[in-house]
Amino acid sequence: MPDDQSHPPYAASAATASAPPPLPPVTKGPGRDRTGLAIFLMCAVSLIFAFQDAFSRVLGGQYPASLIVMLRYWVFAAFAVVLVSRQPGGLKRAIRTKRPLTQIARGAILALEVMLMVEAFVRLGLIETHAVFSVYPLMVAALSGPLLGEKVGWRRWTAIGVGFSGILVILNPGGGVVSTTALLPFAAALLFALYGLLTRHVSRDDPAMVSFFWTGISGAVAITLVGIWDWQWLAPMDWIWMGCLCVCGMSSHYLMIRSYEMAEASALQPFAYTQLVWVSFIGVWLFNETLRANVVIGGAIVVGAGIFTLLRQRRKSLANPPAGGAR
Length: 327
Fold this sequence. Notes:
By secondary structure, the protein is mainly alpha-helical.
């Protein structure tokens, strides 16, 4: 796992349908440590992500997931353009990438992942979707060896195995999760893991804001090719929900960027799992979902294995710092 803060090891949200982009590097100025404030912001981001997913479920129950994601991506692409325009070099620098095909693939993969998650919210509910999706950091660790050539030791392989056993607990036969439907968040987790690995791959050549720009633009183009065929006008009230969804997306991304400017990714990532708590509360409170014992136990196993993997990755990074501050 790279220690370069411009590309955190995993997205700040443990299970969100608006996968966060790569972020700018930590800039530690003089004065007091701001890690506490960064942790507070990360918890706030997790809460916003939870409401964002709730809005996605509301809209996804009325309209095709491709339409909802397409509208979100249009706003996200505009947000990306505005944000990178304010960075050194502006749009001209953001457009220049050494790996255009990989950047396009990243954007398309992420758009597909978001669409699968929205569909899963409608069919499975927020709680069970997030419980299954939380396996994605373990997928990143498992795939980093064959895809990136990174060494995965026996401790992390053990954690990966334990984490996947937690998924089996969540998908307990007769527990209420239909196996074929549960493949939606599982497939989304696999796509998100692939997106994360591709992000680490392009980070060797492209700055964070270049990847951020291409994530928004290529994702918007890819989802438009699919979603435009499902075009329909939203009802007046649903435009309000869509507006709330987009505001949540922009504010969460901005706060997340600010948090990563104040503290290292390894210090913040465990607090991203608080989204599971917020999602559980919202699912029960607003959507009358049931918080079943096997989901709680299985989710705790998966999250525990994920945090252990993060700590092992962090220890490895400290023991073997990358040359030049990135790898």
